[in-house]
C-alpha cells in the first residue's frame, strides 16, 4: 500500500523506529484503498474498543478489492428518547447541548467525537464519516422538554460534538427544525460549526441575535485550502468559513472564531494569521483547543499523520505527548482542552498575545434567558383563564 508521496507503510515506520517510544508508531491497520476512500478523512475502518473481532479486507488473488465501489454515505434513522444532553464538566461554559446527528460527513481526521461511534458497533474511522444517524423527531422532543414544568432555560450549545450543518443537513433539516423551536420559545442558543450552511438560517439567527438569544462560533483550523482538504475533506473551504463570519457579523450575529484544534507541527504556525483574518471579517471573540486524541483516535490520527506528513510525524506526536504529561492523551479536567508543559504554555501565550493585539474581546457574549416562553403543547383551552 502506497501513501501520499509514494511512501510505503514499512518505509515510514522504519523512519519512526529510531525512537524507543512505542507511542510514536502504530501497527498497520486494515487500510482502505485510496481510490475507495477518496474524499474521506480517515484511512481505515479500525474496529471500536468494544469489538471482540477485527475485520480486514484482503484480496483473494482475483483482484476482488479492485471491483469494490467507492465508499458511500449511508443514512440511518435514530429515534432518541430525549434530545437535550446534560453535562457537568468544568472545562466548558454550558451545561446542556444538542447533537442533531451522530457521526459527521465532514471527515475531520482529528475529531474527538470519533470514538462515540464505537457505541454503535461501528468503526470510529471511516464508518464515522459514512454511517450517519439522523435523530428523527428531534424538534418534537425538544418542544416536549422545553415544555416541562420544571425546565429552567439556559444556553443550549449545538455543534460541540458533531457538526449540525454537515452536508446531510441540506436534505434532512434537523438543525433547522430545532432552531425554529428555539426561536419561537425565545431560548438562547450557541452554535459551533465549520460549515457555510449556517448562513441559510440567517432569517432565524439574526432576529434571535437582536434579542440577545444567539451567537455562532466558526471553526477555522487553517487558511491553506490544500491542508484543509487533507484534514477535513468535506467541510467548507477556509475562504467560505471566513465569508460566513463576515456575513454573520454583518447581519448582527455575534461571531467567534475557534482555532481548533491546534495540531503541533501541522497548523500551529497559523494561529496569528487565522485570528487576523477572522477579526477583519467581523469576529470579536476567539478561542482555541489543543489537539485531543482519546481512545481509538490515537491510532487513527497517527496513521493519517504518518501517511500524509512522514517527515513531521515523529516531531508532531512527540509534541502531543509533551502536552499530555508524556501520554498521548490526558482527560483530566482543566488540562484536556489546553494541555500542559512548555509547548502548551507557549501556544497559550501566543494565542493570548495575538488576540489582544488584534483586538478580540476578553469576555464572552452573554445570552439572555429571561425572555423564554415555554412552548404550548396540545389544547390550551384554559390559557384564557
**Class in CATH?**
Alpha Beta
Counting DSSP E segments of at least 2 residues, the number of strands comes to 10
Query: How many domains?
Result: 1
Order of helices and strands: HEEEEHEHEHHEHEHHEHEHHH
How do the strands of the widest beta sheet line up side by side? 2-3-6-7-8-9-10
Provide the structure class.
Answer: alpha/beta
Strand content: 5-15%
Domain Radical SAM core: 87-327
Keywords: Iron, Iron-sulfur, Metal-binding
Protein name: PA0069 family radical SAM protein
InterPro entries: Elp3/MiaA/NifB-like_rSAM, MJ0683-like, rSAM, rSAM_sf
Explain what you see:
By secondary structure, this protein is an alpha/beta fold. It has one domain: TIM Barrel (Alpha-Beta Barrel), CATH 3.20.20.70. Helices cover 30% and strands 12% of the residues. The chain is built from twelve helices and ten strands. It has helices spanning 9-16, 126-130, 138-146, 169-172, 174-185, 202-210, 225-231, 238-250, 271-281, 297-308, 313-322, 342-358, and strands spanning 74-78, 84-86, 96-98, 101-102, 131-135, 156-158, 189-193, 214-219, 255-262, 285-290. The chain has a seven-stranded mixed sheet with strand order 2-3-6-7-8-9-10, with helices on one face. Strands 1-5-4 form a three-stranded mixed sheet. Strand 9 (255-262), helix 9 and strand 10 form a beta-alpha-beta unit. The longest helix is centred in the C-terminal third of the chain and has 17 residues, at 342-358. The termini are far apart. The model is unreliable at 1-25 and 380-385 (pLDDT under 50).
Amino acid at each position: 500500500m502506497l501513501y501520499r508521496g509514494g511512501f510505503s507503510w514499512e518505509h515510514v515506520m522504519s523512519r519512526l523506529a529510531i525512537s524507543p517510544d512505542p507511542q510514536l508508531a502504530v501497527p498497520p491497520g486494515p487500510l482502505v484503498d485510496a481510490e475507495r476512500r477518496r474524499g474521506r478523512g480517515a484511512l481505515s475502518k479500525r474496529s471500536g474498543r468494544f469489538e471482540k473481532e477485527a475485520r480486514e479486507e484482503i484480496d483473494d488473488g482475483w483482484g476482488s478489492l479492485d471491483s469494490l465501489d467507492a465508499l458511500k454515505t449511508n443514512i440511518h434513522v435514530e429515534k432518541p428518547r430525549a434530545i437535550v444532553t446534560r453535562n457537568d464538566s468544568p472545562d466548558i461554559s454550558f451545561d446542556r447541548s444538542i447533537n442533531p446527528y451522530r457521526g459527521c460527513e465532514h471527515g475531520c481526521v482529528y475529531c474527538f467525537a470519533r470514538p462515540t461511534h464505537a457505541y454503535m458497533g461501528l468503526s470510529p474511522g471511516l464508518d464515522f464519516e459514512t454511517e450517519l444517524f439522523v435523530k428523527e423527531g428531534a424538534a418534537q422532543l425538544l418542544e416536549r422538554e422545553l415544555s416541562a414544568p420544571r425546565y429552567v432555560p439556559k444556553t443550549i450549545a449545538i455543534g460541540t460534538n458533531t457538526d449540525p450543518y454537515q452536508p446531510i443537513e441540506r436534505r434532512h433539516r434537523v438543525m433547522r427544525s430545532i432552531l425554529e423551536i428555539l426561536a419561537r420559545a425565545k431560548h438562547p442558543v450557541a452554535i459551533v460549526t465549520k460549515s457555510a450552511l449556517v448562513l441559510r438560517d440567517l432569517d432565524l439567527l439574526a432576529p434571535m441575535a437582536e434579542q440577545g438569544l444567539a451567537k455562532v462560533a466558526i471553526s477555522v483550523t487553517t487558511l491553506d485550502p490544500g491542508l484543509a482538504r487533507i484534514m477535513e475533506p468535506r467541510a467548507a473551504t477556509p475562504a467560505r468559513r471566513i465569508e460566513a463570519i463576515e456575513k454573520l457579523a454583518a447581519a448582527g450575529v455575534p461571531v467567534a472564531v475557534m482555532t481548533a484544534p491546534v495540531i503541533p507541527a501541522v497548523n500551529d504556525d497559523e494561529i496569528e494569521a487565522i485570528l487576523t483574518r477572522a477579526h477583519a471579517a467581523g469576529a470579536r471573540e476567539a478561542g482555541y483547543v489543543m489537539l485531543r486524541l482519546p481512545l481509538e483516535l490515537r491510532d487513527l490520527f497517527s496513521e493519517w499523520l504518518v501517511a500524509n506528513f512522514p517527515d513531521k510525524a515523529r516531531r508532531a506526536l512527540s509534541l502531543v505527548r509533551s502536552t499530555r504529561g508524556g501520554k498521548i492523551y490526558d482527560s483530566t479536567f482543566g488540562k484536556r482542552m489546553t494541555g500542559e508543559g512548555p509547548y502548551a504554555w507557549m501556544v497559550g501565550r501566543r494565542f493570548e498575545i495575538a488576540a489582544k493585539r488584534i483586538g478580540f474581546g476578553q469576555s464572552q457574549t452573554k445570552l439572555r434567558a429571561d425572555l423564554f416562553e415555554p412552548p404550548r403543547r396540545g389544547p390550551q383551552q384554559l390559557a384564557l383563564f
